[in-house]
């Protein structure tokens, strides 16, 4: 007669194999890459500003706006890579300028408008060098495809298993990571991201920092100085946010594809958002730096549900093994 192990282990193996196919898990490797937004300081799918208020005060790199843009008293592209042939401003709709400066590093920059709208207009109350502006078309930049890719990326990143812990203390959050990890992932559910501090003793200096906040309304405020050495490797992912504001100086990039964005602070990273609004008569005072986001590879970690199903399967097998034994005892 076959032993219990000889009879059950093949069944266990078959069950594990079946569960591995039936249970969704993370992809073997997930590349966190901002795609079309790479190379831009701000990549906005909808409108920036309004007819009564400017959308940005200063964008140190390139600016992409899928809808209409209203800009006044602004500067764009001052820290863009010198010599680049890419336009410093791209808009899908109309471009409306009161006053400001368009740079391409240390040189004069160019702007392309009307990428998505053949009827888009250019309005400028300030004189610019001839050739500064040109009408674009769909081949210039595909905002629709970019929004689809970046929204999917945000959703995928939001599902990653956390590798670090978050402790609320001293009127803020302390993030403790894994000193051996190349990517540290932290999950927070809070409308107030105030005074975030990295525990630098638990995070190696070359690591990426991914912060998922599942709230729908989010404000970044207070101190972020511990992130200064991780600016190009920090991503704040706000997959559910519909309103995001910045009222401090923060290091890192923000991926908030469904969110309106506003504020008075400085973000040293890349901003990806649905729109940018001005909340007062002076317009938006938000500044976006020229530090981009360096892509990160995420190794696969099975979803918690995978383990639960595997354990459940094993439990069923052992219960089936125990039932015949119970019957034999009763018969005796």
Give the averaged pLDDT, no decimals.
85
Which range does the strand content fall in? 25-35%
Biggest pleated-sheet summary: 13 strands, parallel
Give the helix proportion (percent range): 10-25%
Q: How many discrete domains? A: 2
Low-confidence stretches: 15-29, 300-314, 316-332
What does this structure look like?
The chain folds into 2 domains: 33-141, no CATH class; 145-260 and 285-295, no CATH class. 19% of the residues lie in helices and 33% in strands. It has helices at 4-22, 143-158, 304-331; strands at residues 29-32, 42-44, 58-59, 63-65, 69-71, 74-76, 89-91, 95-97, 100-104, 107-108, 111-113, 122-124, 133-135, 165-169, 172-176, 183-188, 192-194, 196-198, 208-213, 217-221, 234-237, 243-246, 249-251, 253-263, 266-268, 271-276, 287-288, 296-299. Strands 2, 4, 7, 11, 13, 16, 17, 19, 20, 21, 22, 24 and 26 form a 13-stranded parallel β-sheet that branches. Strand 14 and strand 15 form a beta hairpin. Helix 1 runs antiparallel to helix 3 (304-331).
